[in-house]
Amino acid sequence: MQTAPVSYGSDQSGMVCGYLFGRAADGKGLPLDTDAACQWLRQRAQHPTEFIWLHYNLANTASEKWLHEHTTLPDEFYESLHEGPRSTRIELIDNTLIAVVNDVVHDFTFEPSDISTLWLSVDEQIVISARRKPLRAVDSLRNAVRNGEPIRSSVELLTHLLRDQADALIKIVRDAITTVDSIEDNLLAGKLTTKRASLGALRRVLVRLQRLLAPEPAALFRLLQKPPAWMAEIDVQELRQSTEEFSMVLADMASLQERIKLIQEEIAALSSEANNHSLFVLTVVTVLALPINIIAGLLGMNVGGIPLAQSEHGFLVVVVIVASFTVIAGWLAFRRQRDVS
Questions:
Q1: Are 199 and 295 members of one domain?
Q2: In terms of domains, do 195 and 320 share one?
Q3: Which GO cellular component terms are attached (predicted)?
Q4: Strands 51-57 and 126-131
Q5: In a domain, 63, yes or no
Q6: Mean pLDDT computed over 191-209
C-alpha cells in the first residue's frame, strides 16, 4: 500500500485520500491509494472487522464515474450530489446512512459563497465522502486521522466530522462576537463608525449558516429512534450527543443575530436623531434669515416713500429692527425645541 499524497487535489480517479481502519491497527487509519482501495472493495467480505474511508473531489469529473464502477452506493446519494443547497441532514436509505453536511471553506470571510457542501455515504464497512471545495471540517478530520487518532467505527467517523464542523462553527461565532463587541463598544462610546449595511451583511451570513448547518430534526429524529442494526449503541449515543452540542452552537448563533438586530436598531435611531438635528439647524437658519430677507426686500424697492431714507441714523435703526426680529425668532425656535425634547 502506498501513502496517498497530502494535498487538496486528487488523483486520476478523483480520490483526495483514503484510509483503512481495523483492529490490526488499533483503530488508526492506514493510508490507501486507489489501487489498494479497489482491491479492498473486491475483498471486503473477507475483512468483516475493517472499514475504509474514501474522500473524493467532485471537481474532478472522474470521481462519479469511479464510484459508479467500484461501489454500490444508493441512487439517492448520486441524486443528492446534484441537488441545490439544503439543510444538513442524515437519512437511512437501504441500510446506509446518507448525509448532506454543509460546511465553510478554508478561507471563510463571512461571505455567503464561502459555504459549500459535503456528501457522505456511511455503512458498516465503507465511508464515502465527496466535496467540490476544500472544507474546514473534513480536512480537520483528515488531519486527525493522519496524525494517528483511533476511529472505532464508520459512525464514529461521521460523528467526529460533525464535531469538527461544530468546532469550525464555534470559531466563526467567536469571530463574529468579537466583531459585534467592538461595534457595540464604539456605539456606547458615541463613535458611530459602522454602517447598518455592514451589520446587515454579517447578519445575513449568520442566518444562512444557521439555515444550512442546522440538522433537519425530522430525519435525525427518525434515525436516532430507529438506527440500523449494524450501528452500535455507543455510536447512537455519541451521534445524539454531537447533535445536541451542535444545537447549543446554533442557539448561540441565534442570540448573536438578535444582538446584531438590536445594534442595527440603535444605529438607525442614532442616525435618525442626527438627521433630525441637522434638519432643525437648517430650519433655525432659515427662520433667522427670514426677517433679514423680508426687510431687505422691502427697503430694496425702487419706489418713493421708503422710511428712514433721509434719516441720518436710518441704517442703525434698520439694523436694530432686524437684530430684534432675529433674536425673537431664534428664541422662539430654541424654546420650542427644548419643549419637544
A1: no
A2: no
A3: plasma membrane
A4: parallel
A5: yes
A6: 75
Is 1 within a domain?
no
In the chain, what is the straight-line distance between the N-terminal and C-terminal CA atoms, in Å?
A: 81
Do 169 and 137 contact (CB within 8 A), yes or no? no
Strand arrangement of the beta sheet that strand 96-104 belongs to: 30-31, 15-21, 51-57, 126-131, 115-122, 96-104, 89-93
| 169 Cβ contact list (under 8 Å, min separation 6) | 104, 209, 213, 246, 249, 253
CA 97-98-104 angle, to 5 degrees, is: 125
- Are 185 and 262 contained in the same domain? yes
Is the pLDDT at 7 greater than 60? The verdict is: no
Does 200 have pLDDT greater than 90?
no
Residue-wise pLDDT tens digits, 148-188: 888 888 899 988 888 888 887 888 888 888 888 888 887 77
Average predicted confidence (pLDDT) for the chain: 81
Summarize the confidence of residues 81-100 as an average pLDDT.
82
Q: Is the pLDDT of residue 6 over 60?
A: no
Q: Are residues 224 and 101 in the same domain?
A: yes
- Residue numbers of the domain that contains 140: 15-269
| The C-alpha cell that represents 244 in the structure block | 445536541
pLDDT given for residue 4 in this prediction: 43
Considering its fold, how many domains does the chain have in total? 2
- Of 110 and 100, the structure prediction assigns the larger pLDDT to 100
Closest CA to 199 of 171, 212, 180, 185: 180
Strand-pair partners of 19: 31, 53
Q: Is residue 241 part of a domain?
A: yes
Question: Residue 61 contacts by C-beta under 8 Å, 6 or more apart in sequence?
Answer: 14
**Distance of alpha carbon 31 from alpha carbon 131, whole angstroms:** 19
**CA-closest candidate to residue 145, choices 124, 126, 164, 118:** 164
Mean pLDDT of the region 123-130: 92
Nearest Cα to Cα of residue 68 among 11, 13, 119: 13
